Amino acid sequence: MTWLRTIVGSVLVGVGAGLASALFLFSLELVTKVRMPWLLPFGGVLLGLVLQRFHVAAIPRLFQAAATGEGPAVPWRAGPLVLFGTLLTHTFGGSAGREGTAVQMGGTLGELVATKLGERRHLIIAGIAGGFGSVFGTPIAGALFGMEVVAVRRWQWRSAVPAFIASFVGDVVCRRTGVKHTHFPHVEVSGEWWRWLALAFASALVTLAFVAALHGFKKAGARFSPPQRLFIGGVVVVALWRLVGTDEFLGLGVPSIEQAFVTAPERTAFAWKLLFTAATLGFGFLGGEVTPLFFIGATLGGALAGPLGLPLDASAGVGLAAIFAAASKSPVALAVMAAELMGISIFPAALAVCVVTTLLTGRFGIYERSVTSM
């Protein structure tokens, strides 16, 4: 009856992940409307005090449990803490995303269900898939992401059924609450292979720059306590904000992503968003990397469309997928995600560019993997 427990557990995890994502997305929409960037350093002190009191190495521990089924339990409080921290980050204008929160909440739910039903490894992967698929409205990509992201050399194929069940259930539940996901245009792809290869090389360089900046800010802040580190990080982001004189690079940046498919963005937009995001997350504010990296990839692709002779919308769409694919080492999931969001015609180019970009960046990425040989 192990398979029955796994299926029941996957459905329960999917329902929970979908409801958690809906709560998160509705809350995120509210706090974005009251953004207060000047107070980011002080919001950082508050978040630092909370993290200092309830610190958990959430994502690395989650990935270790998903890859091996072993390791210490993911504390139940990790999900609510990450939700609180992410909303706090966005309230004060930090440049962060949302997948980290959704993945953490889903994985924590998987851990909780597994304490009653067993099948810990499969249900944590199901939770990761359910969180990712429901928060973006991409259930196939969510399932693939749950299997692909936790291991570098071998996918967790035995978790395919739980991952797909949780991701599809989570997506349906989240949509039924009335959540509206970001709409992307359907694109048609054209252009010689070498033009797309050039975009892959550019995406790899930008990915490496982002990872280096992220780790550089982490290293710079490591000597300080959490409240001190987050205060400094807030000051850095506020200084960048005042330097550029625009709110464009605060928060998720969804309007700029949408605009990149219509008009060629400023050629420095991707670099500014890279700095804002690396500083926000590197100094310890909570959130995810996906949407900021979508911003970076879409604006990079849009800026290079003209020089490379590529269609603007297709170049922006492929760039959007490639940067996060390389940073998270999940090229297949991101190529499928591009197809779910922008139509199947983008899939061949997205898959080729995502794979090449990932190979060019080697093992440099944003997620710490406790297990790299699975």
Structure, described:
It is a multi-pass membrane protein. One of its GO terms (molecular function) is chloride transmembrane transporter activity. Keywords: Membrane, Transmembrane, Transmembrane helix. It is found in: Membrane. This protein is mainly alpha-helical and 374 residues long. It is 71% helix and 0% strand. The protein is built from 16 helices and no strands. The protein is globular.
Which CATH-level-2 architecture of the largest domain? Answer: Orthogonal Bundle
According to CATH, the fold-level topology of the largest domain is Clc chloride channel
Arithmetic mean of pLDDT: 88
Succession of helices and strands? HHHHHHHHHHHHHHHH
Transmembrane segments: 7-26, 38-56, 123-145, 193-217, 229-245, 274-296, 308-327, 333-360
Membrane topology: Multi-pass membrane protein
InterPro entries: Cl-channel_core, ClC, ClC-type_chloride_channel
Protein name: Chloride channel protein
